[in-house]
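User: Just a sanity check before I run the rest of the batch. Below are the structure tokens for the first item. I only need the designed sequence back.
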């Protein structure tokens, strides 16, 4: 389902995360937004004031039925990925569904994941993730870290995810995959 970049009138108030500051803002009913991208059921929108914000999939109903359908499809895809026994490849698959809401490339292809280390523990696996951000002062960094923790803990057999933000070595564009470079027009 293709999302057209046209104004969408908000059906109810909704809490959103302002990009790039990471501040929580309230978007009021009757106001409009323009959906810029849909990333794993979350929506990056341009507000009527011209700034960007992320509306979470749980609030898709504020955007209307088309967006509820997109959020439900993303949730169905997540449920399917969460079947079966623990496999570190499933951790990587989930990490590929985490996005910086400003950038249409996932954090794995951006080269932000430095380490994924599962450790067997009673009842499953504890998974340590070392990751970085494209910029140390990124306001949405805590939101991305929370997304990583939540997604990894949703993998079958994972009892705990420990996500550590590191800045050594510093991130640079050389860490990006070829597909991310293509998506961002860096060739």
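Assistant: Here's the designed sequence for the first item:
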């Amino acid at each position: 389902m293709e999302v057209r970049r046209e104004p969408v009138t908000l059906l109810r108030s909704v809490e959103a995360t302002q990009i790039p500051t990471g501040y929580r803002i309230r978007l009021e009913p009757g106001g409009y937004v323009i959906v810029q991208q849909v990333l794993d059921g979350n929506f990056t929108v341009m507000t009527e004031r011209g700034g960007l914000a992320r509306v979470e999939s749980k609030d898709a109903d504020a955007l209307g039925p088309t967006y509820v359908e997109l959020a439900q499809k993303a949730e169905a895809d997540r449920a399917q990925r969460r079947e079966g026994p623990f496999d570190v490849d499933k951790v990587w698959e989930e990490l590929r569904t985490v996005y910086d809401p400003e950038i249409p490339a996932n954090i794995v292809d951006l080269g932000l994941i430095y380490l994924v280390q599962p450790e067997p523990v009673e009842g499953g696996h504890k998974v340590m993730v070392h990751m970085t951000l494209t910029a140390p002062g990124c306001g949405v960094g805590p939101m991305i870290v929370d997304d990583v923790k939540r997604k990894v803990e949703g993998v079958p057999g994972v009892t705990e995810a420990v996500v550590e933000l590191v800045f050594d070595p510093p991130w640079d564009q050389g860490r990006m995959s070829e597909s991310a470079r293509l998506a961002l027009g860096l060739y």
